Amino acid sequence: MAEAACYSCRCSWFFLKVLHLRTVSDASGPVFGMFDFTMDTTRNFSVAVGACVSFPDIGAGPHTITELGKAGVVTSSITVDPPARLVSFDMANRTVTATAEDVSTPTTVTFKNKAQTGTQGCTPGFWKQDFHFSFWTGHSPTDTVGSVFTGALPELSSETLLAALQGGGGSGLLGKEAILLRAAVAALLNASNSSVSYPLTSSQIIAAVNAALATGNLTTINNLATLLDNANNGSGGCPVMTVQTPG
Fold first, then answer.
1. Which of 68, 93, 115 is at the close of a domain?
2. Secondary structure of 61-122 in the HEC alphabet?
């Protein structure tokens, strides 16, 4: 029997052996649109986020449902209600097996999906190497800090992006700004390179750095530098690290 629309995943209890499937968005990484599924390897269907479909009188026994992969999205949970009807699940392959029973209470399978935050990043040490300049996108090593960021001390604003990557640090305002700009330039280059799945956009980085510099507050500047440094050292690694080596 073909799938039918369901209301809040509560269908007519005149049907027996009902199986519902619904998709929801994980609040920590909202997703939208349609998700594609297969049931028992032969039935293909799609479900919009927040909606569900019903399979009335599908037949008692176990049924296997697989959600097809979607770029930039991970499945954060798969649940079956009542829980006793869960047979098995494989989060890595977005697959669950659940039983439909010949009773009035339906089996409801819920897939929760979330947008995957970028975890890749390359460090200042990577970007400052001349044999990696070919990976710079939208910016040049000779561009000045002041052409991108505002509010830095004059001696830092006038230096090049490459010099900022090579910068040191210190306990005073000059040192803290140098630390921030070193991390910020690397962050900007990560965000500008489409091969790097970075968690921030260029506009977000520029706005955050400008706001931090405008405060002149050492703690604020240092905290942002730490945040960007952590992103530049993301668990996903530097995806372009081995693409090009020194000649």
1. 115
2. EEEEEEECCCCCEEEEEEEEECHHHEEEEEHHHCEEEEEECCCCCCEEEEEEEEECCCCECC
